[in-house]
């Protein structure tokens, strides 16, 4: 593993970055809650995965990836270990992973955000870019959930209400 540090002027604190990410997670949780249970696990558009599968992907990335960053473990990404069958199970695991994210995020020093890390043994970027990828991926999949809800004739939560 290569470690490269870059000097930068601070744009935001790590606490602000976590708050931003958790705002997105709060909104995604509300999107999960908006789905009727059956459609959460079965409905899709254009061959895309049902929203529950997209949420399992998000659950499988955030907490495990931060744990890997903190422990300097580049173990591969795996979403096979969690197969929920109810909305309640999905939301419970979402909440558990929120706590995992909070715990491990708080263990990353300001200096480490600039270090290069080979996430899941596949993506070699600075830690802050890996975290931004987690947020971007969540926004992308939440957008798919919005399309599904609209296709079902349902109004999704307002995207700007993240808290």
UniProtKB/TrEMBL annotation:
Keyword tags: Metal-binding
Residues annotated to bind a divalent metal cation: 141
Record bears the keyword Transferase: no
InterPro entries: DinB, DinB/YfiT-like
SUPFAM superfamilies associated with the record: DinB/YfiT-like putative metalloenzymes (SSF109854)
Gene3D superfamilies per the UniProt record, alphabetical: dinb family like domain
Annotated GO MF terms: metal ion binding
Pfam families referenced in this protein's UniProt entry, alphabetically: DinB
Similarity comment text for this entry: Belongs to the DinB family.
Protein name: Uncharacterized damage-inducible protein DinB (Forms a four-helix bundle)
Species assigned in the record: Chryseobacterium takakiae
């Amino acid at each position: 593993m290569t470690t490269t540090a870059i000097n930068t002027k601070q744009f935001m604190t790590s606490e602000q970055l976590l708050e931003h990410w958790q705002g997105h997670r709060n909104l995604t949780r509300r999107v999960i809650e908006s789905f009727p249970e059956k459609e959460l696990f079965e409905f899709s558009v254009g061959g895309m995965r049902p929203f529950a599968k997209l949420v399992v992907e998000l659950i499988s990335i955030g907490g495990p990836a931060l744990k890997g960053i903190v422990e300097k473990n580049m173990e591969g990404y795996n979403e096979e270990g969690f197969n929920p069958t109810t909305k309640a199970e999905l939301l419970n695991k979402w909440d558990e992973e929120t706590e995992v994210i909070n715990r491990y995020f708080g263990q990353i020093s300001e200096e480490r955000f600039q270090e290069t890390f080979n996430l899941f043994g596949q993506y070699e970027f600075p830690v802050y870019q890996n975290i931004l990828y987690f947020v971007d991926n969540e926004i992308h999949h939440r957008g798919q959930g919005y399309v599904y809800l609209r296709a079902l004739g349902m109004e999704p939560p307002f995207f700007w209400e993240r808290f």
